[in-house]
Inverse folding.
């Protein structure tokens, strides 16, 4: 069996994880594939961990089984570790390198691990790891807000990604505000090149 | 996809819809005329969509002041022959319950759907109640969709069923259905009637004992007929994967996990998927039970169907093993996922492969509890109040902070710790009254604007009448914020975006007889602190309305105007006293790990500038 492709997206509320995965889901639908997605709303709106899961293929439930993710998109480095139970050694992982330090760390009631340790931990377990500075790239593209689209661009360039670049771009045009589309397309292309280069 | 496409996309088209969005399309395809709600996650997005499209759809939509009012508005519409739709989160049905229970007796003329979005695992709720039990308590037909397509289709079907038997229908979703996105194939949108006509019939619509004694009997007759439908409904269907060793009875979101586990492990089982699950389709289930050797019931949250199955087995004196929550095969509490179902089923089926060991980390992970946003006016209110309390040398243990349902309850976290008690919508006042009577401690009650209109007003009347000397702080951020920003009676816009009269909280408090009523702007910290000091020393009940729009509203306004102010910390002036970090605690302010210097993350900074008032050295400045 297994004609299923699973993407786990993890980030912090406000980073645009839901938008990024909706674009992929919409593109999958356009390709004629079955697709289901789970998103989190409400309390976690800002500041909390936001998880979105996307399953494409012959499936019913939108939740990914442990170790079954084909692709992990971590919009924040420490959050990549939080999603470890969903990945296996062959999962492709894209990690945004900009940390977001919560107030609990400033108050001394929790700890944020060293960046080098986070990457070491990921490298020791995962074969296919790409670390990108999505904010920096988005800024170059024209707006720091497009960092989610940078990550989406990188995702679209990974091997086995189930939908074509063209369909993603079409879906972006339908799901993003027309005002920002130019910047977003640039951000997407720059993210795409991060994998291809 | 644009929100408008939920209305405009034609028959035969398909959209990638959230369960909540699919509910809107289903209502439109079902010819709905009137829709009402009080916002509550996980049902909130249904209202957000209607807010944007109701006008164009020719549908009346409102954010009612609470769920009971919302249910009454929809019930009256359906009693006038219109099709109506009312939706709420699971605990909202508790608020609506008084009228809900009776509306099932009186029944309706036009189709009426009550949607309850349950929240297994309590992602954004105060309890995990399973409203399939409410369906049984009320005696109302129940639909349980498993995905957005089914939500849409069953909305349409629900109207027909409701109208045929003149009884409201309850649809129960869960967070994973409401917030699941899937492909939805669309049917035609049907324009509902513009106005209904209420044909008087007091023997039916006035619930005095002489009437309800007959209505109760009629309700039972209706349910018996719906049970017949359920026994033969295509919504309740058999999926036969061969084998008769195990039969699985399931519904709602749990069905999806069962299907994926069965397919992943190639299991030879029979599955009975129930969607019209109350009245319980006894005959259909009896046949199913007889056709297999043992039964597994997979459902979220309570063992509701499992008890029904056990009752059937007892009634017909069958000898069948039933696995489920009651025997510990599956967990009793929290939402399911595919792994939980695999592990549970592995206890009774050898064939199931349990996963290879999964990765984990020993590194510490930062805690990220939900926080008051950067720019949130509540933080300023709490900061000013805390300062006033300190200046008056009041002891924290002598103060009881009675909080309420809303973003402001997040003040329970350090450093504020200003939420000691919170039960339900509006409870800050009733609980406050009780503490005022039971203790000598100072009671401070917090309530939001929307929550005040929802259930705070009776508590205020009680406090005034019974002479409870509490300090009531109304955190008026001009919106129903926690659910994503919906209108309420205090704002000048209604649920369809039209201008509307604002109900004055100050006017209500004064009219009710409160003598000390003052409105403050929390972004003026000094002034706010002064007035809090006055209020804390006032001998009687005092009301302070702390008024400043939600940061989300201000953001949207500023974006439109092109205003983009950020603050920064002048490192030469900063003495690292950390008041902004440790006492004010805005999520945008952080300490650099390497050298201990304090900075503002300009991606997060909202530009409210309150931190600049907090800094004793005036080191926080507008970023140029």
């Amino acid at each position: 069996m297994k004609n299923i492709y699973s993407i786990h997206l993890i980030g912090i509320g406000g980073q645009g994880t839901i938008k990024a995965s909706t674009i992929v889901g919409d593109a999958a639908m356009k390709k004629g594939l079955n697709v289901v997605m789970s998103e989190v709303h409400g309390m976690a709106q800002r500041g909390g961990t936001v998880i979105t899961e996307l399953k494409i293929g012959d499936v019913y439930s939108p939740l990914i089984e442990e170790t079954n993710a084909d692709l992990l998109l971590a919009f924040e480095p420490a959050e990549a570790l939080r999603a470890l139970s969903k990945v296996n050694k062959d999962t492709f992982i894209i990690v945004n390198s900009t940390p977001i330090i919560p107030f609990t760390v400033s108050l001394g009631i929790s700890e944020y691990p060293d960046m080098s340790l986070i990457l070491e931990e990921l490298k020791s377990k995962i074969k296919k790891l790409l670390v990108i500075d999505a904010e920096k790239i988005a800024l170059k593209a024209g707006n720091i807000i497009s960092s989610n689209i940078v990550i989406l661009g990188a995702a679209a360039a990974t091997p086995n990604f189930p939908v074509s670049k063209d369909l993603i771009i079409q879906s972006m045009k339908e799901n993003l505000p027309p005002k920002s589309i130019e910047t977003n397309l640039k951000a997407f292309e720059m993210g795409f090149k991060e994998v291809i280069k | 996809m644009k929100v408008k496409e939920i209305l405009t996309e034609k028959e035969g088209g398909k959209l990638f819809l959230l369960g909540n969005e699919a509910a809107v399309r289903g209502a439109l395809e079902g010819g709905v005329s009137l829709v009402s709600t009080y916002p509550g996650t996980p049902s909130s997005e249904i209202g957000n969509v209607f807010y944007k499209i109701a006008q164009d759809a020719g549908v009346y939509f409102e954010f009612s002041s609470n769920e009971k009012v919302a249910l009454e508005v929809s019930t009256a519409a359906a009693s006038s022959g219109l099709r109506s739709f009312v939706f709420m989160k699971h605990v909202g049905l508790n608020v609506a319950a008084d009228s809900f229970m009776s509306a099932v007796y009186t029944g309706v003329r036009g189709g009426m759907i009550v949607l309850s979005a349950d929240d297994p695992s309590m992602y954004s709720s105060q309890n995990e109640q399973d409203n399939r039990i409410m369906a049984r308590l009320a005696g109302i037909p129940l639909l349980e969709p498993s995905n957005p397509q089914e939500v849409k289709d069953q909305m349409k079907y629900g109207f027909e069923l409701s109208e045929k038997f003149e009884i409201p229908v309850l649809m129960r979703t869960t967070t994973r259905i409401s917030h699941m996105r899937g492909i939805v194939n669309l049917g035609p949108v049907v324009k509902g009637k513009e106005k209904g006509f209420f044909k008087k019939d007091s023997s039916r619509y006035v619930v005095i004992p002489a009437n309800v004694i007959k209505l109760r009997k009629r309700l039972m007759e209706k349910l018996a007929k719906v049970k017949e439908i359920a026994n033969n409904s295509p919504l309740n269907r058999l999926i036969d994967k061969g084998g008769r060793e195990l039969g699985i009875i399931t519904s709602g979101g749990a069905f999806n996990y069962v299907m994926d586990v069965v397919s992943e492990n190639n299991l030879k089982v029979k599955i009975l998927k129930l969607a019209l699950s109350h009245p319980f389709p006894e005959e259909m289930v009896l046949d199913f039970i007889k056709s297999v050797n043992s039964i597994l019931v997979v459902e979220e949250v309570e063992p509701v169907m499992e008890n029904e199955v056990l009752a059937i087995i007892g009634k017909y004196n069958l000898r069948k093993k039933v696995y489920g929550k009651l025997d510990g095969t599956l967990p009793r509490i929290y939402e399911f996922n595919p792994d939980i179902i695999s592990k549970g089923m592995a206890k009774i089926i050898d064939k199931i492969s349990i996963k290879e060991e999964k990765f984990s980390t020993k590194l510490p992970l930062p805690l990220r509890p939900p926080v008051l946003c950067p720019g949130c006016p509540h933080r300023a209110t709490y900061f000013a109040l805390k300062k006033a309390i300190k200046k008056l040398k009041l002891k924290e243990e002598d103060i009881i902070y009675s909080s309420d349902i809303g973003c402001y309850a997040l003040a329970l976290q350090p450093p504020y710790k200003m939420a000691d008690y919170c039960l339900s919508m509006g409870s800050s006042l009733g609980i406050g009254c009780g503490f005022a009577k039971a203790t000598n401690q100072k009671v401070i009650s917090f309530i939001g604007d929307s929550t005040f209109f929802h259930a705070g007003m009776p508590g205020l009347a009680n406090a005034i009448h019974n002479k409870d000397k509490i300090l009531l702080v109304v955190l008026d951020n001009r919106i129903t914020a926690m659910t994503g920003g919906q209108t309420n009676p205090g704002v000048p816009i209604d649920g369809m975006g039209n201008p509307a009269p604002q109900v004055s909280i100050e006017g209500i408090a004064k009219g009710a007889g409160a003598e000390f009523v003052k409105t403050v702007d929390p972004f003026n910290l000094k002034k706010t602190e002064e007035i809090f000091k006055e209020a804390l020393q006032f001998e009687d009940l005092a009301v302070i309305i702390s008024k400043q729009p939600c940061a989300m509203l201000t953001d949207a306004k500023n974006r439109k105007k092109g205003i983009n102010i950020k603050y920064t910390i002048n490192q030469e002036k900063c003495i690292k006293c950390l008041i902004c970090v440790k006492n004010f605690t805005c999520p945008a302010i952080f300490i650099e790990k390497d050298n201990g210097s304090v900075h503002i993350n300009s991606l997060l900074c909202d530009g409210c500038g309150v931190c600049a008032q907090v800094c004793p050295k005036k080191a926080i400045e507008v970023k140029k």
Q: What stands out?
A: Residues 4-100+108-196 of chain A form a domain with the Pyruvate-ferredoxin Oxidoreductase; domain 3 fold (CATH 3.40.920.10). The mean pLDDT of chain A is 93. Chain A is about 40% helix and 20% strand.
